[in-house]
Structures are given as C-alpha cells and as structure tokens.
Design brief:
heterotrimer, A: mainly alpha, MetI-like fold, 14 helices, 68% helix, C: mainly alpha, 73% helix, globular
Chain lengths: 282, 439, 292
C-alpha cells in the first residue's frame, strides 16, 4: 500500500465483499431451489432460504434420475464425467510432455512443421468444426465410446508450449552431465525432466481436469446412449421438458452437483490452480 | 496413466454392454412428463408380454431435436430402429427414400399381418404416399382444441358450460374475465405455428401453400400471408398489448401451460394431447373443452382442423432381427386395447376404428364429456385441399421462422402483414433449397 | 534453443506420434472436410450430393440472418469483455490494497472459473425466469417489465451477464498478477509528488497494465466467440427472433438442427479464419513477451 487512507481501504473492502456476494448469489439460489419440493415454484417468486426437501431431492437425483427427462441416475453421470475429465487431463499431459521433449531436445527434419501442426490445434476449437469432427468420429465408430468422448479433445498446443517453456529453462549442464553418465534420452526424460516438472504437471492437471469436466457440446453430440451421458451435458435435457414445467428443484440439484467437483478442486488446490492458469496462458 | 485409464474404461464398457439373449431395439421419442411415463409403461407392457425382443425407449428432447438427432445418427450409422417424428417432419422423411423403411413394406417383408384399412382415414391420409401406401406408423396424432377454466368463467359471470365459439367470443369473454378480476389474462396458447397459423388456415379453409399445401409436389410455395391470417395475427398483437392474450413462447410454448394451471389465463388452446397434463395439473378448478374459435364472417369457417402429433418411422440399416421386433411391436402398439388405453389417457386421437369403438363401448366419452371434441372437430366437414394437412420439406426450420416472425410481431418490430410476408419469403427460400437438394 | 541435443533421429517422431495423430485425425482432417463440404449441397440424410462452388458462401452474405448474427456476435463479445474486464479490474484494484485478507478474498472470488458455462447459463436462466425468477420480480417492482422471451435486448443482457459472471474470476487473477508486477517504487514516487489515487491510477497503473489488458481482451473475445456456446444453447437458443444467435451457435444450429450442412460448413470455414486471425494476434503478443 502506498499510503494510509482508511476510507479508501474501507471502500476496497466493500467492493470486494460486494463482489464475493454477487459471485455467490446465483449459486446460493440454485442451492436453495434444490432444497424445496417442486410445488414451491408454482406460486410466485422463488424462495430465498433453504427448504426441507434437500436430502430427498439429492437422493432421488443421485440414485434414480428422471428417466422421462432423459436423466439417468446422476451418480452414473458424475462417474462418466469424472472418467472423461481424468482421461482428458492425463491424456493431454502425456502426449504434450513427450511432444515438448521431442521438440526441445532433438533436432530432426521437419521439426518446425511438426511444431506448427501442433500449433494449429489452437486455431480450431471443437465448436467451430463440430459437424465434420462429429462425422469423423462417427465414421471411426467411436460414438458412445469413452474413446470418442475423449480422444478428439486431447490434442493440446497450450500444454505442449507450457512444457516447452519449462524444458527451455532447465540448464543445459544437466543434460551434459546425464550424457557423460551415459544416460539415454528416455532415461534422462524419466529421471530428470519429469521430476523437475512435477509441479508444472500438477498445476496443469488442475486446469485440464476442469476443462475436461466442463465439456458440453462434444459429449452432448457423441453420447446418444444414456449410459454415457455426462452430468454437464445432461443438464439442458432436464431443464427442457416438453409440455410441462421444468422441475426446477431437480434441475438446480443437478447444477449444484455438476459444479461441485471442479469448484472443490479449485478451492482446495488454489495455489496449483493459479499457477496452472497463469502458466498455460504465458 | 493414459493406458491404465483406457484399459479400465474398456473393461467398464464391456461390462455395460453385457449381451442379453433378447434382441434389443431402440426407440427414440419426444414424450416427456406424464406422456413419457405412460409411454414407458406401454413399452414395459410389451417387453413383459413376450421374450424375444426388448424395446428400449429413449427420450431425446423436443420433437425437432429428436428428429434431427435421428438424422444425424443415421448419417453416423448409429440410428435407432424406430424414431418418433412429428407431422411437420413428414415431408423431409418421405423424401429420404434410401433412409426410411416404409411401414407397409416392413410389415410385408416380415410377414406380419397388417390391415391399413383398420386405421382412421383422417389420420393416416397424412402419412401415405401417392399410391396410398402407409409409410410410417401413426402413434400419437392430435389436433388442437380449446380448454377453459369453468370456475373462472363462473366467477366472471359467464356460463360455466359455454366455451367461446368465435374469436369475437374469445375477445368478449376475455375482457369480461379481466374486468371482473376473475383472472388476469384471457387466453394463452401453445404452438403458435401449428395452432394460430396452420390450423387457423385449415379451420377457415384458407390455403397454407400452393399445390394442395405441398401434397402436389416439391415446387410448392407458402401462402400464409392471406387476409385471414394477417387479420388474426394483428388481433393477437392487439390482444397481447391489452393483456388479453399472453404469449407462451416459441415451439410448443412451454410457458403457456403454467399460465393456465396457475389460473392466470382462463382459456388455453393446445393439442388435444395436452389433456393428460391439464387433468393432472388442474387440481383446484374444473376444466371445460371446446372447439377452436373461428371468425364467423369468413366463408367456409369452421371447416375442419388438421392433425399434429407424431408417427413412428423405421430407419434403414439395422439387422433383420430388429426389424422383426419392430413389426411385432407395431402390431402390439396398434392393438385396440393399447390404442384405446393410450387415447383415453393422453387425449391423442384413436388411430384405429377398433380403438375408437372400444373406447365408446367402455363408456369413456360418457364418463368424460369433452374428450371427443378433438375427433368431432377433425371430422367436422370432409377435408378440402386446404384442410387435409400439409407437406413441406424443411418445414421444421420453417416452423422456427414462423416463431421468429411472430416474436418480431409481438415485440413491435414488425406489423402482421410484414411478419407474414417475411414468413412466406424466408420459408419459400427453404422450400427451394429443399427442392434443389432432393431433386 | 538448446545448445546440446540428442542425436537420435527416429525417437522424436515416436514421441510426437500420438499428438500428431490426434491432430491429423481430429483437427486437420475435419477442417479439410469442412472446406470440402462448404462447396457442396446435400440433403438431410446425406443421400444426394452435388457440387455448387461458392454458392453456400454467396448465400451466406446475402442472408440478412447471417449478417445479423455477425452483428449480434460483435455486440455480445464486446459487452462481455467490457463487463467482465471492468468488474475484474475493480476487484483487483480493491484487492491490491489488502494485505492480510487478500488470500481469503481471492479464494472467494476465483472459484466461478471452475463452473461450466452451461451451469452458469442455467442458473441465470432460473434467476431471470419471467414467471418465478427473482430478478424480473424485482425489476417489475421498479417498473420494468422484463421478458427475455420476447425482448431481444433483455435476452442479450441475460446472456451477457451469464457469460461474464464466469469470466470475471479469470480476468481478476491476471489483473492481480499485473498489479503486483508494477514496482511499488513508481507509485510511491508519484505519491510523494502529490498525485492522488485517481491520478496515480490513470498515469501509472493503467498504462502499465495495458499489456495485461490487451492480452485479456483477446482471450475474452476468443472466449465469447467459442466457449459461450453452452450459455446460449442452454438458455435463449439464439432467440428471440435471433437476437442472441451468435456465429458459433448458428454453425451448430444450421448444421445439426437445420441440417443445412453446406451452409454450416461454409460458416465453419469463416469462423476458422476469424480464430486464425485472433490466434496470430495473441501469439504475436506472446512472442513479444516471451522469447521464442
């Protein structure tokens, strides 16, 4: 702080508190809605304080789901989401770290071309090429498979760049020493590079886990079989019941459950999360 | 790590698809809520009735979503054996000769006894080709009717047993209801395009498109910007401004039913199949039924209403064994008992003469006055070429255009004539597109 | 660039293989397909196909709906960027005055980053529900009749809020980092010269934050262009009367729901051109900041 100005500090506190409340407001309402039974929404305005049906709502949603709204048990959907997020996060890290290793520690023909081929993935978000990508995955017979759900999403230019940055900061002497000891490239990779980039991997994992968990359009299209539905993609189906009012308590319970795991990850691993976020964008 | 993940996911997959001895066939449908529950009940009944086949119903969202999901799945070779397609998708489905397995042919190929003349002509006419062959299996056909809140009518000083007959009645009744404070709104409606444009046209014997509403060929053009339609949309805008009419949203109009259930709007126009929902939700008041209103100075009105709802299309590219199951399941579905049960529960029209007769025999219409409004309205007059239905390609998208232009009208962006002119010009562009792609 | 390297020639290709394979099969191939499809006309089921050259593109630029969609996208992106950057900067400046409580506030402010856009969309959809939502209720008390089902501007405000809410935390973190990087000595010097907080903010903080701001601007625009699809899909579905039909939603809508694959592919190609331009800008900036 530059100088002591109590008024300004007070205003700053107010701004922050207001910010915290604004940010929390929709989630609070969602949580409240999930604790009432569905009749609470027929009459006028939504309630602002929790009701008494919370346990019941979550029990029904986790255990049974609402089949007439295209919602299998949420526990199942959350398991699918978890699996998808883990495969995407681990897959991205695995293929990016090896790519970065190849680009930094080897000199080979077409190296620049390979680098650009990876770079171009940055430019083609799945939403933009959704129809043809869907067709490719369908032609490969990967619809309603965990592979179809995840593999098209695991190419990652950002993760490759991140590891490239990390490797570039590792002193050359380390590798020379390894070479003198007679260590081959893979041994060096395993015994030196991976341990040295452990925190980077962890930080990246946090970001990628959130990325994977929050996938929406892709799972929505690739999973036509309820066994593979993920929770984030499933929410819209629940909110949209033809010729009837959405059962807001159930929809909001699903929303709460869908955000809980990634939010917990951010809150519990805040340091890694911030590191990962700042690094991936550097 | 990646490898172990993949292995465990593979293991999970195989355990999930643990083979069953029964042949499974998928049925994608768009029936949510009470109708969905009933549908699942019917399927469960079928699955329990025999041991060879298991029908697996999946709810795929709204009608347009279900249809497009099935088409996308067809392109991806992941199509279900049966898909429920709403009536406006008929044009698109019929044109896709290599993708659909016509029902008459399926029944013949599978050696399943099948008598097309058992079905009600008013329903099946919509789904036959020019040679009179049935291409899809009627399942849930409906027609829009008028529901009203008898208690509110009485509170407003109206006769609780007289539904409005003409639009002039609707306006007068609505004003009385609002002025007396019996309810804050006169009427609301589901399905703007289906009820307040297509059926409005048929009900007043006005053409929806050239070439017999599209039955005559792909070169058809829309004609919904005629004087009757423009006048009606102008009125809807006027009534919306005065609060007499409340808009229920695009597509099926999801906001409309709650307005009626909560007794905000005293009159409600929607599919006869909304009856299940209305009966389930109208807990605190008594519901009356009536035919759609008409303008009594229009010659030829009221004519007859046209159907909506959906039929079941069979898609190509599944195994023979599955088609056997489909044929068997269709026979079950159209049996008088199942049909009568479905009709009585849901308010959908009985699709076979036998089901209608069975319902009469069971005394259903005596016990439920008003439940036959839909059939009477459908068959009020012999259909003209303006009122036997419509068959346009890309009509799902044209419906969206109708909704958009109606919203533009209500929000004051356009007047009724401009909005309907734009429906016609934008719609015709899509019809030409469809003609070019299917020539 | 490393001075010392391994001499192996086959190994690097082996190491790159998975990444390149995924890129080739799921990125470059579909992109090529999109380009190809954009020159074709096809019926919904994919049974009849004909080559029509640039007709799909020509039709797009004749189509008032497409031009409308471009305009809607521009308004949406700029509004989300302005709102989320503005609020994030305000919060970051406030946090910059905190000593002990900074960490707590940060925790309480950053978690929405983890919330899926669709969840954010559904929650705000619920809050703004015309019949039962709390916001329309409050607005009605103030004399404003909120109806995003009919009023295009209301719908736009709704999706802007839903999309910004989620993005604030991200911008906030980067602004905090940017502020911390400004040498305290500079501000102290200005303070000694008698510059008040506002003046110091305008003459020192803001100019020194401009690289961060520019970077965030590009990131935010990319975010609203592509990642906000779920917000639109779960709430307005582009309506009413296409008032919120952003480009990326239109690609999906025309392709998957409208089943007009040629037009959808042409739109994909145009969007790819836009992303490539944005990525080049972003990368230029990264290049300047980090040695390449």
């Amino acid at each position: 702080m530059v100088e002591h100005r109590p008024i300004l500090t007070l205003v700053a506190h107010l701004v922050l508190i207001l910010g915290v409340l604004t940010v929390a407001f929709p989630v609070w309402l969602a949580f409240v809605a999930s604790t009432h039974d569905s009749t609470a929404f027929g009459s006028g305005v939504i309630p602002l304080w929790p009701g008494t049906h919370g346990v019941e709502t979550y029990r029904v949603m986790l255990g049974q789901g609402i089949s007439t709204s295209g919602a299998p048990p949420l526990l199942r959907m959350m398991a699918n989401s978890l699996l998808m997020a883990l495969i995407i996060a681990c897959g991205k890290i695995a293929i990016s770290i090896t790519s970065a290793f190849a680009i930094v520690y080897f000199r080979f023909p077409l190296r620049t071309l390979a680098f650009w081929a990876i770079f171009i993935t940055l430019m083609l978000p799945v939403e933009v090429r959704i129809v043809p990508t869907f067709k490719v995955v369908a032609d490969l017979g990967l619809l309603n498979r965990y592979a179809g759900l995840t593999v098209p999403l695991i190419a990652s230019a950002t993760a490759t760049f991140l590891f490239r940055q990390v490797f570039l900061t590792i002193p050359d002497e380390l590798m020379e020493a390894a070479r003198i000891d007679g260590a081959g490239p893979m041994k060096f990779f395993r015994d030196m590079l991976i341990p040295l980039s452990r925190t980077n991997i962890a930080a990246l994992f946090v970001i990628l886990f959130i990325y994977g968990w929050n996938q929406y359009l892709w799972p929505l299209l690739v999973t036509t079989d309820a066994k593979f539905y993920t929770i984030v993609a499933g929410i819209k189906r629940m909110a949209e019941v033809a010729d009837a009012v959405p059962q807001w308590n159930f929809v909001m319970a699903a929303a709460v459950l869908a955000m809980l795991p990634p939010v917990l990850v951010v809150v519990l691993m805040q340091r890694l999360f911030v590191k990962g976020l700042v690094e991936t964008e550097k | 790590m990646l490898r172990t993940m993949t292995v465990s996911s593979l293991a999970l997959m195989t355990s999930l698809s643990a083979a069953e001895a029964r042949t499974e066939l998928h049925w994608w449908h768009a029936m949510g809520g009470e109708l969905g529950t009933k549908l699942e009940e019917i399927v469960a009944g079928y699955n329990a009735s025999q041991e060879e086949f298991t029908v697996i119903p999946s709810f795929k969202g709204t009608y347009p979503e279900t249809m497009t999901a099935a088409i996308a799945a067809f392109r991806a070779h992941e199509q279900p054996a049966i898909v429920q397609v709403f009536e406006v998708g008929t044009g698109t489905m019929m044109a896709a000769k290599g993708a659909i397995y016509p029902v008459y042919q399926l029944m013949a190929d599978m050696g399943e006894p099948f008598d097309p003349s058992a079905f009600l002509p008013a329903v099946v006419g919509y789904y036959t080709d020019t040679e009179g062959n049935m291409l899809s299996m009627p399942f849930n056909s409906s027609t829009p009717i008028l529901y009203y809140n008898k208690d509110v009518f009485e509170k407003a000083g109206l006769d609780r047993d007289t539904p409005p007959q003409t639009w002039a009645d609707v306006e007068a009744f609505g004003q009385k209801i609002m002025e007396s404070g019996a309810a804050p709104c006169g009427f609301t409606t589901g399905w703007i395009s289906w009820v307040q444009l297509e059926n409005l046209s048929a009900w007043h014997n006005q053409p929806i498109g050239t070439l017999e509403n599209g039955f005559g060929g792909l070169e058809t053009e829309l004609t919904v910007n005629g004087p009757v339609q423009v006048r009606h949309w102008e009125n809807l805008k006027k009534w919306q401004d005065s609060g007499l009419f409340q808009y229920g949203g695009p597509g099926g109009g999801n906001d409309a039913p709650p307005k009626f259930y909560a007794q905000d709007c005293a009159i409600y126009m929607n599919s006869s199949a909304s009856r299940a929902g209305v009966v389930a939700n109208a807990k605190d008041f008594e519901v009356g039924y009536g035919m759609l209103p008409y303008y009594d100075d229009v010659e030829g009105a009221p004519q007859n209403s046209i159907i909506g709802g959906a039929t079941l299309w069979v898609l190509q590219g599944r195994d023979e064994a599955e088609y056997k199951g489909v044929a068997d399941f269709f026979s079950y579905l159209s049996s008088p008992e199942v049909q009568a049960d479905w009709h009585q529960f849901s308010g959908y029209l009985p699709i076979t003469q036998a089901a209608w007769d069975l319902s009469k025999e069971q005394g259903f219409y005596d016990a439920n006055p008003g439940a036959d409004v839909s059939i009477r309205q459908m068959t009020l007059n012999p259909p003209t070429e303006n009122s036997k239905g419509l068959r346009f390609g890309n009509y799902v998208q044209i419906r969206t255009i109708i909704d958009e232009e109606f919203q533009a009208l209500l929000s004051g962006g356009k007047d009724a004539q401009t909005a309907l002119d734009d429906v016609v010009s934008r719609g015709n562009a899509l019809l030409r597109e469809f003609e070019a792609a299917n020539r | 660039m490393k001075r010392t390297i391994f001499g192996n020639q086959g190994l690097p290709w082996l190491l790159l293989a998975p990444q390149l394979a995924v890129t080739l099969v799921f990125f470059l191939w579909p992109a090529g397909q999109a380009v190809r499809q954009s020159f074709l006309r096809e019926d919904a089921f994919g049974l009849k196909t004909s080559f029509i050259g640039l007709e799909n593109y020509a039709a797009l630029f004749r189509d008032p709906q497409y031009l409308n969609s471009m305009q809607v996208t521009a308004v949406f992106s700029l509004a989300v960027a302005a709102l989320s950057l503005g609020l994030a900067l305000l919060l970051a400046l406030a946090l910059d005055r905190m000593l002990g409580s900074a960490r707590i506030y940060t925790t309480l402010l950053v978690w929405p980053y983890a919330v899926a856009p669709v969840v954010a969309g559904i929650m705000w959809w619920f809050i703004f529900n015309p019949t039962i939502g709390i916001m329309p209720h409050m607005l009605r008390a103030l004399g404003y009749d909120w109806n995003h089902g009919l009023d295009g501007s209301d719908a736009m405000v709704l999706v802007v809020i839903a999309a910004s809410w989620k993005q604030i935390s991200y911008n906030f973190l980067f602004f905090v980092a940017g502020l911390q990087a400004i040498p305290a000595s500079l501000r102290e010097a200005a303070a000694i010269d008698g510059a008040g907080p506002v003046r110091r903010f305008l003459t020192i903080t803001l100019p020194l934050l401009s690289p961060t701001t520019f970077f965030l601007l590009v990131v935010n625009i990319t975010y609203t262009l592509f990642d906000t699809f779920p917000v639109i899909h779960a709430t307005t579905e582009g309506g009413p009367a296409q008032a919120t039909n952003i480009l990326v939603y239109k690609v999906f809508n025309d392709g998957f729901l409208g089943l007009n694959l040629g037009s959808s592919a042409a739109q994909s190609v145009i969007l790819m051109a836009i992303v490539i331009a944005l990525t080049v800008i972003q990368f230029r900036w990264i290049e300047r900041r980090v040695e390449y």
